[in-house]
Amino acid sequence: MTQLLYLEDSYIFSGAGTVTETGEDERGTYVTLDQTVLYPQGGGQPADQGELIWDGNIAAVKFVGFVDGHVRHYFDRNQLPPTGTKVEIRVNELLRRRNCRGHTAGHLVAHVAESLFPRIIATKGYHFADDPHVECANVEPPSDENAIARINEQLAKCINDNMPVTSMILSFDELRQMCPHVPANLPKDKPLRAVQIGDFPPVPCGGTHVKSLSELGPVTVAKIKGKKGNTKISYSFE
Ligand SMILES: [Zn+2]
């Protein structure tokens, strides 16, 4: 398994690793490393971009994926570093920080909506730039016509209060004790982790986040829509 260094700190922007395998799949040529600071796409969060550097070579990592416990770093190159090569890893910091903000904003939107409207339970997040939103399965949107205004007022308050964002690596039993909602499809090939914003309940999450809410610009809900018995809450962030 690849050791996921970003789980311990979202703001490590460089590191080192050793090539454990090279290969090719439908996405292209890739190397796996014994450890990595690059985030593989998943959990509603886009993949990091970055660079691998070894023996005078620099290769731009165009995608990072997670397959069977291993992180695959994809790049366009005929010559792959052979197994055993030590590589330097660099993260595209601007993109990572943006993904941290978008992902944390998604958690915050979910917490605020759940606290104001108890029937709402967020079941999925999508933190890509094109359509960031939180999905709540099997529930209609709140009937309160002021729902969006009330959510936005609380979002601004939480950010103004600069709530801390913390995380803990946990066993499955600990996770179940701490988190009110634990999805059935937790990954079996990754460490489990809970993320907590302020006094909101911890949630299972393996993504990257800001360290406190003052790092976020305004987070605003623009639309709450019902779709096939589910609720979609769309938000914007900077
Ligand atoms: Zn998260």
Provide a short characterization of the protein structure.
This protein has 238 residues and is α+β, with helices and mostly antiparallel strands.
Explain what the structure shows.
The protein has two domains: 89 residues, Elongation Factor Tu (Ef-tu), domain 3, CATH 2.40.30.130; 141 residues, Threonyl-trna Synthetase, Chain A, domain 2 (Threonyl-tRNA Synthetase, Chain A, domain 2, 2-Layer Sandwich). It is an alpha+beta fold and 238 residues long. Strand 15 and strand 16 form a beta hairpin. The model has no long low-confidence stretch (mean pLDDT 95). The longest helix is centred in the middle third of the chain and has 24 residues. It contains three helices and 16 strands. The strands form four sheets. A seven-stranded antiparallel sheet has the order 6-5-9-2-3-8-7. Zinc ion (ZN) binds next to helix 1. The site of zinc ion has 6 residues, from helix 1.
Secondary structure blueprint with pairings:
Elements lengths: L2 E2 L9 E12 L2 E6 L1 E2 L13 E5 L2 E5 L1 E5 L2 E5 L11 E6 L1 H24 L7 E3 L6 E4 L10 H14 L4 E6 L1 H7 L13 E6 L5 E2 L15 E8 L2 E7 L2
Parallel strand pairs: 1-4
Antiparallel strand pairs: 2-3, 2-9, 3-8, 5-6, 5-9, 7-8, 10-11, 11-16, 12-13, 13-14, 15-16
